[in-house]
Amino acid sequence: MTSVPHTRALTKLYGRRPGVTDADLDIPPGRVVGLAGPSGAGMPTLLGMTCGLLEPTAGTNWQAELTSSSTTTFAWSGNEAP
């Protein structure tokens, strides 16, 4: 089974300070992805929200689980379903 994460307008606020603002992310099956940026750019926060360890303040985060039997199951977190 392969998980394919997708995010739309994902945002995380810490009080009034933004940790991540309006992040869109699509990772196709079989791809290896790295995040790079300056210190304080929100890479660990984005990964935490994508993995479900942190709850986003706004936006949508979901994963499609693709199986060999062509059955697709969706799970999401955030303010609304995709």
Automatic annotation (TrEMBL):
Keyword terms, alphabetized: ATP-binding, Nucleotide-binding, Transport
Q: Describe the location of the ABC transporter domain by residue ranges.
A: 21-61
Q: Please give the InterPro entries that the UniProt record associates with this protein.
A: ABC_transporter-like_ATP-bd, P-loop_NTPase
Keyword Metal-binding among UniProt keywords? no
The GO terms this record gives for MF are: ATP binding
Family, according to the entry, reads as follows: Belongs to the ABC transporter superfamily.
By what name is this protein known? Answer: ATP-binding cassette domain-containing protein
